[in-house]
Specification:
The chain is of the alpha+beta class. It has 7 helices and 8 strands; from the N terminus they run E-H-E-E-E-H-H-H-E-E-E-E-H-H-H. Strand 6 and strand 7 form a beta hairpin.
């Protein structure tokens, strides 16, 4: 609609206000963002819809390293933002998957989901500082000729930035046909193997919650299995 993108609101007005304030005030060195836009009456929600500025660009196939680089610049701009309280109130499948990955929900409760027991058995502590990150960069960085990448659909989490990088790598391995060579770019990143294990737990738990009572995928059509094998070999743990 003109220069706006409308979408059914999946956030409350308090989180939209928070995103508006954060995205308006951070520096934008090497990336673009689209803060929530207000209606004529000043509201951020109108009959269940929210709006953001339209940003030119499109998704780039197999541009994972550029997505990660844009995320790193975005996270650098967010590094001084304090942890928002609404993160504790989330109960959606993504929040549950994240908490299982980081030991904030008991992993054995999810052992009926494929790969969870194997991945969680390989976890070691990660002693790196957390900050505000975007936990779903893979499909939410847009590229346009002559413009910095646009980071859209901000999904806030409070984790080390390396976790956001590992989520992109996990998504690439599971859903987008990446090979093991993608991991070579992160060989020197501290704790990357542990981040990748957690990223796969996060995605696998979320996927399992959405599948619900559907039968498990057989191994020959399981997109997670090759990624789990790669992550376990990389971490040298399982």
């Amino acid at each position: 609609m003109g220069d706006l993108v409308l979408k059914p609101a999946d956030l409350g007005e308090d989180e939209l206000r928070w995103q508006e304030e954060v995205l308006e005030r951070i520096g934008r060195d090497g990336f673009r963002v689209a803060p929530p836009r207000r209606a004529a009456n000043g509201s951020l929600l109108v009959e269940g819809w929210s709006a953001r500025a339209w940003l030119p660009g499109g998704h780039g196939e197999r541009r994972w390293r550029e997505i990660i680089a844009a995320g790193e610049r975005f996270h650098a701009a967010l590094s001084s933002v304090t942890r928002p309280c609404f993160l504790d109130r989330r109960t959606d499948p993504w929040a549950i998957g994240d908490r299982v990955a980081w030991g904030e929900l008991p992993a054995p409760d999810f052992d009926d989901m494929k790969h969870i027991a194997r991945l969680t058995a390989a976890l070691d502590p990660v002693d790196l500082p957390s900050q505000l990150i975007h936990g779903d960069l893979t499909g939410n960085v847009l590229f346009a000729d002559g413009l910095p990448p646009a980071v859209i659909d901000f999904s806030p989490y409070w984790r080390p930035p390396g976790f956001a990088t590992a989520i992109v790598v996990a998504d690439a391995l599971v859903w987008e046909g990446a090979g093991v060579e993608l991991l070579d770019s992160f060989a020197t990143m501290p704790s990357f193997g542990q981040f990748l294990l957690r990223a796969l737990i996060y995605r696998a738990v979320t996927d399992g919650l959405f599948l619900g009572d559907e039968p498990r995928r057989p191994d020959d059509s399981d997109p997670f299995l090759p990624a789990v094998e790669i992550a376990c070999r990389y971490a040298g743990e399982c």
